[in-house]
Design a protein that fits this description.
Elements lengths: L17 H13 L6 E3 L8 E3 L1 H9 L10 E4 L2 H4 L2 H11 L2 E2 H4 E7 L4 E6 L1 H6 L4 H12 L2 E4 L5 E4 L5 H13 L1 E3 L7 E5 L5 E5 L4 H5 L10 E2 L2 H8 L1 H18 L6 H12 L19 H7 L2 H11 L8 H7 L23
Antiparallel strand pairs: 1-2, 3-11, 3-12, 4-9, 5-6, 6-8, 7-8, 10-11
Amino acid sequence: MKMAKQEYDSSVQAGEPVGVIAAQSLGEPGTQMVLRTFHMVGAAATAIATSGLPRIIELLDAKKVPSSPIMRVYLKESYAKSFAKADEIANKISEIKMGSVMRRAVENFSKGKILIILNAQSMQAMDLTARQVAARLGKELGVEARVGEHGNIIVSTHTKNLKEVRAITVKATRSIVNGIEGAGRAMVTQAKDGEFYIESAGSNIEPVMQVEGVDASRIYTNDLFATYRVFGIEAARNTLVLELKKTLEDQDISVNDRHISLIADAMTADGTIQSIGRHGLVGRKESVFAKAAFEETVKHLINAAAFGQIDYMRGVTENILVGKQIPLGTGSVKLTIKRKEGKKK
């Protein structure tokens, strides 16, 4: 009687050292990556985006704030077909600081007033009026700000203290006069299918989602922790996979998706984003020897001795360290031989 052929759906062979292979698959091409940055196109044209090895390190170290945050804002159907409507939303989002639209600030300490002389060309280019700037400035600083002669802004500080007036001047020059804080400069871009969307050289997705016309379900940022806060750990995990893949592809490096997915899964398995290092995955290992083999060797061994910790030698690193067979591959198979005893005479 012939036995039916059994089919298996397993992704890998039992005992396959998937972690080691994933680490090698990303680590080896990582030695060929270029230590450089490049200029982004579109909205982020004025910013420098981190790429190559620095970006990979940033992602794997789970940096709380990326050095070059980028945001892609998609619009609802009625807005996505019109450049004028998309540009209107971009102006609402685009972060503009006072320093970008002023020439200089003149302080009058005897009267406790500050005269802010605006740059007419910059104001026109950014489609702002002196009245709008004065209203936002007064709201940001909590002081009285009005439009004076020649379209300049007069800020009344209600104090003649030199130090306090100077502090308000510094705050005024750094304050936001238009848009959403942290969103950066936004610009309208057109996709291949003709749809208009907004790219921004900054990231602050919570308030952007509240802007009328924005499709909140399709907003994207390369900021892992912002994605985690707003959309949850699964979205953050997917963002991590996409960012790793994009960074590698930009360098013409091909790594199988399974290895990248495994790394992202390991970093997000407990519901938070952990780095790969002594403060993350390695630091939380059960094995004393595994932690000591990575960094801070003496510290881990002293703590283990002082608190009577036990190493059960279940992992790969600790077994290699002491010269034992690792519990993977052929080392994961245990055979028992049943001996047939002969008959007694």
